[in-house]
Amino acid sequence: MSDQPVLAPIYNELMAEFPQQIEIESRPGFKGVIVNSSALVDVVTYLHDKKGYDYLSNLTAVDDYPEDQLEVIYHLFKSTGGEIIEFKVFTKRDEPVVPSLYSIYRGADFQEREVWDMFGIKFAGHPDLRRLLLWEGFEGHPLRKDWKEPFYEEDIKPYKNRWPEGRGERIENRNPFKDNVQYPRDFDPKIYEPEADQSVYKLLQSQIPQDTGDLKVEQLVVNIGPQHPSTHGVFRMAAVLEGEKVLALKPVIGYLHRNHEKIGERNTFLQNMPYTDRLDYLSSMSNNFGYAITVEKLLGIQPPERAEFLRVMMAELTRIASHSMAIGFLLNDLGAFFTPSLYALEERELILDIFESVAGSRMMCNYFRFGGVVRDITEDDFNKVKYMVEERLPRKIDDLDRYLTENEIVKMRCQGVGVLTAEEAINYSASGPSLRASGVPYDIRKVDPYSIYDRLEFDVCYQNHGDVYDRYLVRLAEIRQSLRILKQVIKQIPDGPIQTGKVQYAVRVPPGEAYGRVEGPRGELGYYVVSDGKNNPKRYHVRSPSLMSTTSLEKMCVGGKIADAVTILGAVDVVLGEVDR
Amino acid sequence: MNGLGLVKGLLLTFKHFFATYLVDIIGGKKSKARRGQITADGLFTIQYPEESVTIPEEFRVIPFLVYTLDEEGQRTYRCTACGICSKVCPTQCIWITRAKDPETGRPITESAEFYIDIDKCMNCGSCAEFCPFDAIKMDHDFHIATYERGETHIFPKEKLGKPLEYYATIRPVNYQAEEIARAAKAQARATT
């Protein structure tokens, strides 16, 4: 990948339009162009309005420490399909300011807040630039390379003291108080109210429409969560209610934050693989898939044919498991306690049994390797998959369909609730079933095919209303399409090796950058990996579909009833392990 | 028609309900064995801990160290303290001290100490996958709850060690394949 790629025509058009403001990225292995910070908004407006780049896929930053420079990276796509456009903006490390894209893409909202949180880059013009994942009083910006975590050991793994001297120890032993909680002298946790909460409430108050008629109605601030509000994880919605009506709502996230990306930069490339399982713990095979193809882009290798088929088989089984669970728990959120969700869980259970037998673990599969998969599927397991796909699953999906689709209560509760129009869905960078339910037939397996998806026959499922019911219908239809893909995979899977070369634990990745994305069950799962030729990635970023879906949550909930907010959250189907990372 | 959807839904629930009994009456004990399997109908769950599901061969929790016993009952570990497992470990929960020859003081291919912090271990199986000597393997025993969550969760070498026969019982297919490969390797070394 070291040779300079030919510039796509869109870059030449950009150069012609903004001759002084743009230069070509010249580092080997890197793509795209560098845009002058002062011209960013003009360039993006031009791309958005004139060229149809209406979908902001990914926005993140890289720290070039020890150089005095931070990069902000943008990946844009057209919602009608087509080439990626990638560009960077450089800014100074000690006083980083970059213009915000909030006014053009609402999908930039959470991503810019995350970059501010992690890198300390200010986005001029962002109306609500608070920390996203960490709390307001947090010291420093953790993804900067010179930031060190508590109990910091070394910059990169493997840590040198583990072998041959054997000096590992329990972290608890390193704390002299044997307790992680220490309060300052004049601090009383009982009366302490964090500033961050006040800022959320103030923000909510400022968003309430002032003129609410003559009748004086009391307005209540209600916090839903951060306990499990609907079995989706630790998530909090701060809402202002007037009666049952939601006047303003803000999602508050970060309760499961563990800085996956910092851990990822400490890890070697291969060590990241089991960590990706823990992002979206309901679809670990998809997460593996995305990371594997991204690093394979950097390595310039292709997995053998059989491995590709196995990968697609696992990814589609994951999609079925994840979607059937999403449908089951959507019904839970509607109040149909546990009967539908347990019927859905049965099928998921059987798919997980297959994963357990093939990969070794039910949810934390860790099945993919760069250039292949860990092990071949046995005859026995293959027959199980075959039976599931050809006999059991179609029957059970029909059962779910018969049972739920025409159900009056489901219809009443779901139709017309949480509507997102096509324009809004694109602008908010929604992806996956949320985007397709709004009438945008955008499926990465079709528009930007990876692996062997271009050789398989399937339809992109979409609906036009963009409400909760349509998201349910899209999921149901996608399960059927996954079954269709699986039938072809079972028929066509060739014999042969499952790995190119030998798997090495210290992978040498040539310097460069890669953005790989797959269509996970929850939408576009992207990985942005930068290598500087060492054993560990210089930057490892996850574009998580759940986080992007959370961006549009406010839009969908405001104006509706509070009971519908829970339904909408269920229909968006966020997994908090991935939102908080 | 209003209400038809509800009736349909309830019919499915009833179908499930009666299938549970029907399958039991017709199938007898066999139907019980099918619960939790892909051919299951009606009731799906099993009565843990009285019953338990069969664990597939590749299932993995907490690594163990393979040893063989000689005639005097001394353990000979396969581990050579090469350190690959501690290098690939994503959570860095393995630490090894290499043993030294008591006379010359030079490091030998044997570990003096071998610890795994099972609180940190994420059961990813990388150590077993990359071990070149088939010395560290993933276990099947997941009943490892303890009353103390401090030092007892750091497993020393003695606790990690399990006999080769145990490995052969939990992973028979892998064991067979590995033994054949090891024999071939030994033969190749002997002929050259």
Write a concise synopsis of the structure shown.
The complex is a heterodimer of chains A (581) and B (192). Chain A is of the alpha+beta class.
Give a description of the structure.
The complex is a heterodimer of chains A (581) and B (192). With 581 residues, chain A is α+β, with helices and mostly antiparallel strands. Chain A has two domains: 9-124, NADH:ubiquinone oxidoreductase Nqo5 subunit (Beta Polymerase, domain 2), CATH 3.30.460; 260-580, Cytochrome-c3 Hydrogenase, chain B (Orthogonal Bundle). Helix content of chain A is 39%, strand content 15%. In chain A, strands 1-2-5-4-3 form a five-stranded mixed beta sheet, with helices on one face. Chain A has a three-stranded antiparallel beta sheet with strand order 8-9-10. In chain A, α8 runs antiparallel to α9 and α9 packs antiparallel against α10. Chain A is globular and about 70 Å long. In chain B, 37% of the residues lie in helices and 20% in strands. At the A-B interface, α7, α10, α11 and α12 of A face α1, α3, β3, β4 and α4 of B.
